[in-house]
Amino acid sequence: MKTTILKIAVLLFVTGCASSPFGTKVKEPFRGSAYESNNRFFRATGKGESSSDNIARGKADIDAKTMLAGQINTTMKQVADNYMGQTENERAADVAEKFQSLSRQVMNTDMADLRKIGEQKYYNEKEKKYTVFMAYEIKKNAMFRFMKKQAKLDNTINEKQQALIQKILDEEEKKADAEDKN
Question: In 3-state terms, what secondary structure has residue 19?
Answer without folding.
Answer: coil
